Amino acid sequence: MSPCSKSISHQESTTLLSLPVDLQILIIPYLDFTSLISLAQTNHFFRDLINPQRQHFVGRLLEIECLPNNGGEVTLDLLKDFPTTVRYACTRCLKILPHTKFDNHALLRLRFRKPPPESRAGKQLCSWTSGDAKAQGLKRQADLKNNTFENWMSREHPLIFSPTPELRESYKIGTCRHRRTCNECKFQTGFWARNININLGWGHRNDNQDVGTASMPIIKSRQVYTYHDPSQRFFPGLFPYTGEFPARLRSYRVHHIDREAWCLYSTRCPGCERWQEFAAFRQPRMPKSRPQDAPRWNISWNSNIEAWRCNSCVAAAYGEQELGKQLVAFWKTLAEAQVRLLDYRLENGWRQFGYLENTNKEFSWTRVYRRARVESQLLREVPSPLEIMKMSVEARREIYGIWKQFLQEQGEWGSGDSIKNLWFKNPWFKHWSYGYEAMEKRAEFLKACTDRVEADPGILVEYALRGAGYEAMQMSY
């Protein structure tokens, strides 16, 4: 046999199993957790030598959650929703779960996020050590003592003498993921019961804390969706609206937007013991997530929230007919409140004409009205803003046409200097002038939807139990 063939034969016969145990003990700590568990599952010898513990299986699970099929690295962007494919590891039940099964702190805090590959947690090895529990404990203490930020910088970035915030973040990110647990595990261990002060009640709590009770926690979700009104918030996708949404009045800033940001809440139903979105419990009062105003719960502490049940539990206990009645009442509460609000704004806008005449001498509602109405020039009848407010919807719509025509004559819907001064002094009146027809159409749309669900409650039942509502409440949570 030639020397070359002997060398090849020697290389083929050299395996990890053929090495001395002392060398194996020196090689195994350089494996990652996935390779460590795979090696332990090859045969009885490595199984007995490695003797994988719970922390090793947890480490493998944390490596699996960073794979591309589980979402990979997640770049935190509060302006975007988490993709539905993003999944995280729960280190108590040892499962890879959708991100909706976790609260905000379990995913958004720096030390609980998925680490990028170049970070300290992304390069972490299994740190396996042989010996008894005492030897393993001494090894962990030595690792904690040596694994400081200064030592990490000297190993990974020896030429950088002034650490940047990005490097400090790379050192910390993902280092506490082994303490992450899902909402259900936190419930089973009593975490929510310990962190909800029942004696204070909701009205005296910090607005940034979670609410509910020990048996029915209500957890703030990181998902923030934009809805125009509560009917869309609690019945998303039920009645798609293709028209223009009217502007909403904001008391704390001049800026107006068509939709508001609503924070979703995950709630555990005591009946079926499933986590669902808060909309599944048919409770109309809900805080919004606003840029400057912290959300505040507007539910009396006397409310027996332990008696709340989700749509599926009500249908199973009392039948779909009873669920339909409750859903219709819930819809009417939301839709009628929004219609009343729109009607109030439609009427209140006419009140601003008197204010505009007092603050701008160039503007006269009487002149505007008489230019469009010949009979008013003869009879000298010009309805005052208070009189217009008391008119019917059709009569107000006709008079609004006069105001709209006047703005169009100004060019670009009121681009003249005098009109610009009006907009500057009263920005809400500008949105009222532009969105009057949009408010009317939205109110008529909600009224038509209310008539439709009253005539056929099965629409809401089908939506809540088997339609888009069930998917929104169940599949995401």
Question: Could you explain the architecture of this structure?
Answer:
- The chain is α+β, with helices and mostly antiparallel strands and 477 residues long.
- It folds into 2 domains: 16-179, no CATH class; 198-477, no CATH class.
- It has helices spanning 3-13, 21-27, 33-40, 44-50, 54-64, 104-108, 133-146, 149-156, 165-172, 183-188, 191-195, 230-234, 311-318, 320-348, 352-359, 365-372, 374-379, 385-389, 393-409, 417-425, 427-455, 458-465, 468-475; strands at 87-90, 95-98, 211-212, 217-227, 260-268, 275-277.
- A 4-stranded antiparallel beta sheet has the order 3-4-5-6.
- Helix 3 crosses helix 5 and helix 20 (417-425) packs across helix 21 (427-455).
- The longest helix has 29 residues, at 320-348.
- 24% of the residues are buried.
Key attributes of the depicted protein:
6 strands; two-stranded antiparallel sheet; single chain; 23 helices; 477 residues; 2 domains
What does the overall shape look like? elongated
**Percent helix:** 40-55%
Strand elements, count: 6
> What composes the largest sheet?
4 strands, antiparallel
* Tally of alpha and pi helices: 23
Biggest sheet strand line-up: 3-4-5-6
Q: How would you state the average pLDDT, rounded?
A: 80
Rounded Rg: 32 Å
Q: How do the helices and strands follow one another from N- to C-terminus?
A: HHHHHEEHHHHHHEEHEEHHHHHHHHHHH
Low-confidence stretches: 6-10, 198-205, 251-257, 287-302
For the termini, the CA-CA separation is 67 Å
| Range of strand content | 5-15%
Number of self-contained structural domains: 2
Coarse structural class: alpha+beta
